[in-house]
């Protein structure tokens, strides 16, 4: 640039360049801001990413780091064991039991809980005060806190003072301590899980059923379809999105089952009723094996991520 250019001219040139740059950014923003989508992204994505990083990414990263140490949670972890915690985990028989029990919960949810919820939803989805009353009754268990529900059922199954005690006395048989029975304790937990959560799935199905067009149901009746055929060929296909979401919540909930286990059995007797999360709590947190517990947490996290992405890419791929 010539030395004859005055400082005022340099400032003016810089100002013009800045204005041109701003106009270019403004034009690009307007071009790509389809229906304010870009503006929404700019405003809401950074806080969400920040929170996700602080409360999800960082804890998972720390858990992965601590899982490589034998550490009780005090001071800095120093005993580097590489993948020793993972080797110990996969050789532990109680972990196998916890995995198997979690799979049982998933199986029972899909085979018993969800069909039961669907049958009841089909019976009471129409709007009337009696149906509203039944919906409230069936949904009440879901409102109860898990710990409160667990304590209620612990009393029900108590062989000395509970409902089970009255039942065995009425039959004049020996007391049955079902929650202390290796063969039946987890069956009792499955009963409570079905009772606790079927109302939640029922409400999903009811919401979906109330969106089914009535004229389609009437048309099926005019065509001579029976009630079962109307359900199978008309209602079920139209609420398949609700069923898909219900299965997703059911499996994800099974992987996270903890709150009902602890007040009912605490994982006993003989570690026979642990799920993955109660196993993590018992053998990782309460026994001060934070490194080992972190290894369990990492395995559980990987299971949840694999399931979520697999389910999303297969069962829900048409609903994006």
From TrEMBL:
TM region(s), chain numbering: 38-61, 105-125, 137-156, 184-209, 230-255, 290-311
Keywords: Cell membrane, Membrane, Transmembrane, Transmembrane helix, Transport
GO biological process terms, semicolon-separated: transmembrane transport
CDD domains: TM_PBP2
Domain ABC transmembrane type-1: 99-311
GO cellular component term of the entry, any: plasma membrane
Superkingdom of source: Bacteria
Entry keyword Transmembrane helix: yes
Family: Belongs to the binding-protein-dependent transport system permease family.
Name of the protein this chain belongs to: Sugar ABC transporter permease
Membrane topology type: Multi-pass membrane protein
Compartment(s) of residence: Cell membrane
PROSITE patterns: ABC_TM1 (PS50928)
């Amino acid at each position: 640039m010539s030395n004859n250019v005055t400082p005022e001219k340099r400032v003016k040139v810089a100002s013009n360049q800045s204005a041109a740059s701003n106009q270019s950014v403004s034009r690009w923003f307007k071009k790509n801001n389809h229906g304010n989508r870009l503006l929404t992204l700019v405003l809401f994505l950074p806080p969400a990413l920040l929170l996700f990083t602080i409360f999800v990414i960082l804890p998972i990263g720390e858990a992965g780091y601590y899982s490589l140490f034998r550490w009780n949670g005090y001071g800095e972890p120093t005993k580097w064991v590489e993948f020793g915690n993972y080797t110990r985990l996969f050789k532990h028989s109680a972990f196998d039991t916890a995995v198997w029990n979690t799979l049982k919960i998933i199986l029972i949810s899909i085979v018993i809980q969800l069909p039961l919820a669907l049958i009841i939803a089909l019976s009471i989805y129409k709007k009337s005060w009696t149906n509203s009353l039944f919906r409230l009754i069936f949904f009440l268990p879901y409102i109860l806190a898990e710990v409160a529900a667990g304590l209620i059922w612990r009393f029900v199954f108590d062989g000395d003072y509970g409902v089970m005690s009255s039942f065995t006395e009425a039959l004049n048989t020996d007391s049955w301590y079902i929650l202390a029975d290796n063969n039946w304790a987890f069956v009792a937990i499955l009963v409570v899980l079905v009772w606790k959560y079927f109302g939640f799935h029922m409400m999903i199905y009811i919401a979906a059923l109330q969106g089914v067009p009535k004229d389609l149901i009437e048309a099926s009746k005019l065509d001579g379809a029976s009630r079962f055929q109307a359900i199978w060929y008309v209602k079920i296909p139209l609420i398949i999105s609700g069923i898909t979401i219900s299965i997703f919540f059911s499996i994800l909930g099974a992987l996270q089952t903890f709150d009902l286990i602890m007040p009912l059995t605490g994982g006993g007797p003989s570690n026979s009723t642990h799920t993955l999360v109660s196993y993590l709590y018992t053998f990782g947190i309460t026994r001060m094996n934070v490194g080992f517990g972190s290894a369990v947490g990492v395995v559980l996290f990987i299971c949840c991520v694999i399931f979520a992405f697999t389910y999303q890419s297969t069962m829900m791929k048409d609903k994006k």
